[in-house]
Design goal:
288 residues, Ribosomal Protein S5, domain 2, Butyryl-CoA Dehydrogenase, subunit A, domain 3, 4-stranded mixed β-sheet
Length: 288
Amino acid sequence: MIYSMTGYAATMRAVKGGVLHIELKSVNSRYLDYHFRVCDELRIVEPALRELIGTRLARGKLECRLAFVAATGVAEQAGLNADLLERLKRFDTEVRQALPLAAPLAVADVLRWPGIFGDDGLDLESVVPACLALASDALDDFTASRAREGEKLAAVILDKVARMRALLREVEPRVPAALTAFKEKLQQRLLDAFATVDDDRLRQEVAIFAARIDVAEELARLSTHLDEVERVLKAGGATGKRLDFLMQELNREANTFGSKSLVAELSQLAIKFKLLIEQMREQVQNLE
């Protein structure tokens, strides 16, 4: 399976007193980069979430949002916590005795105080496992999303590979004829420039220069790298870094091929090679 670094998933689960919401989204990155946005009540869950996500993902810039939404009407049904209200009253009196200019507690402040509506706090013993189970479900959807995107990216890359192979089949038969024509043209120019040059020396110099501009080796290496791209995609898994390296190698061979192509027709094919390689590289940058 090939995975994209771009993905999205969101899910929720009902727990005592409310609903847990989790959202996962990611974009490409050289490494696995976490960004958590967790509500204060659930901060304790963050290390376990980080560990869980690390077992499922290899690369990507991931943003994880985890929130708890209290059920509507819970506060009204619970009633005020009389003991806590009494303590707040005592604290308010003591603070204003020590600091006469301090403002008294407002009703809104009291009603927002944690635990003021009886036992409205989260039961962490049950909520933490629920959060991890919810995160696991979200990761399943998230991974499936990345797999679907990765499958599309792999198809695009394989299409570019097929087009490069077609260009290779097109260029290979033309190389010997182009090389022969260039050798004859070069030999004639040397004869015109140096009328007294020795025939053996002339043929030797032409042969040496022809060897320098022979692109057969570059074409063979391009074909070999394309084989490796197909093999890596077929193997699946975390392929992004390996494929990125292969794109660099393909581009290097295409550059060498272009520099040796002294015939306009081959130079145009070299440009097509580089264009296809760049298009593949853009897709590879999004693979895990």
